[in-house]
Amino acid sequence: MYTGDNDFLIQAHRGYSGKYPENTLLSFQKAIEAGADIVEFDLHLSKDKELFVIHDMTVDRTTDGTGKISELTKDEIKKLEAGAWFDAKFSGEKIPTFSETLDLLENKAIASIEIKTEFSGYKNWREMIDFIIKTVDNRKMWDQVMFISFDPRALLAVIKRRPQAFTGFIDYQAGEEVLKMKMIEAAGIDGWFAPWNIVTKRLVQKAHKMGMKVLSGGGKNLSSIDQEVNILLEAGVDGISTDFPAEVMEILTKSKDE
User: Fold this and answer.
1) Any idea which residues carry the catalytic annotation?
2) Which of 70, 172, 212, 233 is the most exposed place for a label (fewest CB within 10 A)?
3) What is the pLDDT of residues 36-46, one digit of tens each?
4) What's the rounded Cα separation, in Å, for the pair 168 and 224?
5) CA dist., res. 60 & res. 78, Å (int)
6) Full set of structural domains in the chain with CATH
7) Quick one: how far is CA 194 from the chain centroid?
């Protein structure tokens, strides 16, 4: 997996979601402009089996529509307003398809695809993985995508089909970190992704000895972003997942100048 030119990787969580409507092409473009190496997003299948980039199972929170993605057609979803909920000045944004998102990210940033399973109420995740793999195969972009999930089964399903895929386990429950690392190492999973308040230098060193990348969730609040980023730099992680990529980039630049 190509990971950019930076020593410390920035993953833009749902794009530049701290300042722009999440999971939109605008948010992704602004993340790229801010210097993000990786853009993270979620996928859901429509009624007519089109992959759409949206976090929730329904369109209610982030559009002017209602209903489950799985019960709406591509045409119905494409008519929805996906920017004004965040701020009226972003009116006109739409829910992007997976293909539209890859068009934007190709050769600019890694696409970090979060796979949800039954634990998040998503029952047809195996079918969705089939459609994702077909799309990435057709575009020959395996060096430009990664798969992340709270559920190791989803990552194993990807690895079984495409062993070359980069996969990362999202570990958001404190406790037994080393045991979980050993389990995901044995499963062939490439990364351990944990929040900033769980990560320590000792755990990062342990993960690195196992050959795993460590990305940490943090940088979601501007009031604490400096503290979180500096803690993660001290711990030696490989990168941070943030809603504010430009602000993280600014902190990184300052730390290099000091």
Assistant:
1) 13, 55
2) 172
3) 999 999 999 99
4) 25
5) 14
6) 9-257 (3.20.20.190)
7) 13
